[in-house]
Amino acid sequence: MSEVANCPSCNQLFMKTAFRSMCDSCRKEEDRQFDLVYSFMRKRENRMATSRQITDATGVTEEMIFRFVKQGRLQITKFPNLGYPCDQCGALISQGKICDGCRNSLQRDLTSLADQEKKEESRRSNRGAYHTKNFNES
Q1: CB neighbours of residue 82 within 10 Å
Q2: Nearest-5° angle of CA 106, CA 88, CA 91?
Q3: Distance of CA 91 to the CA centre of its chain
Q4: DSSP string covering 41-92, please?
Q5: What is the pTM of this model?
Q6: Can you tell me whether residue 3 is helix, strand or coil?
Q7: Segment holding 14, helix H or strand E
Q8: Residues ≥6 apart with Cβ < 8 Å to 106
């Protein structure tokens, strides 16, 4: 199903679908930039280039190169020095949203929080109320 939306790049109205997230003119410009990057990277001597080196040689922004890697248009297996920044710390990664270090840190924090919750629940459940019944008042 399509809907009218503003292009995230130029703010022009276009029909957004599951396969189109920007207007035709911006998509064509992105494809042109991809062609520049890919033709540069296809050369054997450029396959080990970093995103900074690609930007210097082609004029395509690093953000756009990161987008190509995230989209899978530039494959890390063919170009091992490429990646995109971790959402948490900015280290270059090749898959997911966060690096292994941030993932491990987050896991430790979650485990610690779960342990604290268990201790608090245990402490609350040990506070029992005692009721006494006076058997002499019957």
Answers
A1: 23
A2: 115
A3: 12
A4: HHSGGGTT--HHHHHHHH---HHHHHHHHHHTSS-TTTSTT--EE-TTT--E
A5: 0.71
A6: strand
A7: strand 13-16
A8: 88, 98
Cβ–Cβ < 8 Å for 74, 37: yes
The contacts of residue 114 (CB under 8 Å, 6+ apart) are none
Question: Tokens standing for 68?
Answer: 């190509």
Distance CA 102, CA 90 (A): 10
- Residue-wise pLDDT for 98-131, tens only, equals 999 999 999 999 999 988 888 888 777 766 555 6
Cα angle value 59/65/67 (rounded, 5°):
140
* CA nearest neighbour of 92 among 101, 100, 83, 80: 83
